[in-house]
Design goal:
Umud Fragment, subunit A; about 250 residues; alpha+beta; single chain; 2 domains
Length: about 250
């Protein structure tokens, strides 16, 4: 009996449990990774702290390059929603996977060759194929025959436009306006310039989705409801196809 007991004990000790083997392997791998980090940290001035800072900076760089980028509002052209000094976070992925800007979106775009050598922020009023007119009998902007109520975001006391215009938006471009119509240089001002005041969709950097600063003004930016009922364009249009010619060199 003693011999059998001893034999059983020897059998158990000669076959370690599988769980112990896995745990030991994981421990070796973990120690190897820590050793690698330690070796890299030893080569970097400041050690682990500097390595952590470098990692954070690289992550931030990648984030702002491909995902979200902050922009500061330099003028009052988008008041009252966006004030001078506000910092907005622009979603750079909003139009990168087949989606395109929609009427009512607030977008940031590169105005080089169209507005000026800078980035601009405006509201999309017309997309490719749209027919945009100002103004209807009630003084409202009309898109594809549908009047748009802009009171929820238009600067108090401003008219939708103090001068008339009648434009057809070419495919692949946008017609954009500032919410503070009396203090905005936008598509109206460049109708006689190269590009006809239209912004190529490819020059859009992204959609402004949040006001991040100051903290007291933190809020999300949503698509304006007034454009939700605008019908899709019937097809390509030529400027003045409704019987009214496009107005060149308009200044608002």
């Amino acid at each position: 009996m003693d011999a059998e007991a001893q034999h059983t004990e020897r059998d158990r000790s000669s076959h370690p449990a599988v769980s112990e083997e896995i745990s030991d392997t994981q421990g070796v791998e973990g120690r190897s990774r820590f050793a690698l980090v330690d070796r890299v940290a030893d080569r970097v001035p400041g050690g682990r702290i500097s390595l952590t800072v470098l990692f954070c900076l690289l992550s931030l760089l990648l984030l702002t390059r491909f995902v979200i980028q902050p922009f500061q509002i330099p003028s009052g052209s988008m008041e009252p929603g966006l004030r001078i000094g506000d910092r907005v976070l622009v979603n750079k992925l909003a139009y990168r996977f087949g989606a395109e800007p929609r009427r009512g979106d607030v977008v940031v775009f590169d105005g080089t060759g169209y507005f000026g050598d800078a980035d601009y922020i405006k509201r999309v009023v017309g997309v490719g194929g749209d027919h945009v007119v100002c103004c209807d009998r009630q003084g409202r902007i009309e898109v594809n025959g549908r009047s748009v109520d802009e009171l929820t975001f238009l600067y108090p006391g401003n008219e939708p436009s103090e001068v008339p215009f009648d434009v057809a938006v070419p495919d692949g471009t946008l017609f954009v306006l500032g919410d503070h119509r009396g203090d905005s240089s936008d598509s109206r001002d460049h109708l006689g310039s190269p590009g006809g005041g239209m912004i190529p969709v490819g020059d859009v950097i992204g959609r402004a989705d949040w006001i991040a600063w100051p903290l007291g003004h933190w809020t999300g930016l949503e698509r304006a409801d007034g454009y939700a009922r605008v019908p899709a364009a019937a097809g390509p249009l030529l400027p003045g196809s409704s019987g009214r010619e496009a107005v060149d060199g308009v200044h608002g």
